[in-house]
């Protein structure tokens, strides 16, 4: 895609959804961080089911530390890899209490030093909590960026760097939400729903899939 096509690509996605947001449920920045850590190799729907009761009781790192690893495991046992995730969440909560006054630092490099927090997680927190122009490349964004030709790359980091270079204003803060939602609901992995895609004519993917019988 050239610059004009990329601008039009995001303009259309923005027109369909002017205020995109993460589908993870949270009440503050700490809860967002926890939810994103828990969402690794899990669905947002599954994470939200597990965290609703948890987040009613636990709103701060200190409260999470008080809950303890075993107590957290009981709350999140429906989520994949819950043993490791519980260990990481308690450990990062202890660090936030000890070193950061119970606050989540607005610094991607610092965030990635916390247990269980990789670059993608840090990018989500920076974007959703602090309005940073970061691009958290998950499986949906990786697929959409490569399939459409928006920002091709063999690794998530390569795609992230491509998006950093190519995504124009005023779409940079919302871009990762639009791409995730587009990949989750339209540009699906097994069969992209090209017949209802608002950017199909800008997309490099061939051949375009047709609507199933009954939806034409």
CATH superfamily of the largest domain: Hypothetical protein, domain 2
Structural class: mainly alpha
Count up the helices. Answer: 10
Low-pLDDT segments, ≥5 res = none
| Helix percentage range | 55-70%
Mean pLDDT: 94
Number of domains: 2
Number of strands: 0
- The proportion of strand residues reads under 5%
Q: What's the CATH first level of the largest domain?
A: Mainly Alpha
CATH fold name of the largest domain, please? Endonuclease III, domain 1
- The CATH architecture of the largest domain: Orthogonal Bundle
Order of helices and strands: HHHHHHHHHH
Q: Alpha-carbon distance between the termini?
A: 28 Å
- Give the CA-based shape: globular
User: Major beta sheet, specifics?
Assistant: none
Q: Over all CA atoms, what is the radius of gyration?
A: 19 Å
Provide an overview of this structure.
The structure is a single chain. The protein is an all-alpha fold. It has 2 domains: 85 residues, Orthogonal Bundle (Endonuclease Iii, domain 2), CATH 1.10.1670.10; 102 residues, Endonuclease III, domain 1, CATH 1.10.340.30. Helix content is 56%, strand content 0%. The protein has 10 helices and no strands. The radius of gyration is 19 Å and the shape is globular. The model has no long low-confidence stretch (mean pLDDT 94).
